[in-house]
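DUF2231 domain-containing protein: structure tokens wanted.
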Amino acid sequence: MSTDSAHTDTAETRLVDPIEQKEAFHRTESKIAVAGHPIHAMLVAFPIALTTCTLGADLLYWWTGDTFWARAALWASGAGFLFGVLAGIAGTVELLLVPGIRARSASWTHFIIAVMLLSILGANWGLRLTGYEQAVLPYGLLLSLFAVAFTGFTGWHGGKLVFEYQIGVSSTGS
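Answer:
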């Protein structure tokens, strides 16, 4: 046997992912949707925006000293946490009900980072409930920075699910 034929890449010698070969792997249709649009995808925009707004309000309070910004950060952090919980519930139900989502490691990574993010958002809001003005510096601002960083990590993995694996993307074209 020549060395050329030993190194030839044929259909028999290619590695096959056994998980991808299962029929359920390709079942990625959303179970919680309105007119074909996944609710999780619709809800995540709110905690993303509100988390960013909390950081912005914290920075503006630090810069100006105006209590309006500390109060705005309190409301933004609370609303961001609550919308995050709603998005998390929808995402968790999708994860548990849709076999093609459950089979992908990126789904679980997204889930774990999102739960960590919700913990940070809840801590940030809880800290502010005891005195929103005193909570901003330094711990509120630090929690807001962590929250924005975790939002980026979570969004990266969520985007990977949508753009690489077509999770939540309608195959019917409607």
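Residues 30 and 168 are 6 Å apart (CA to CA). The first strand starts at residue 33 and ends at 34.

Cheers.
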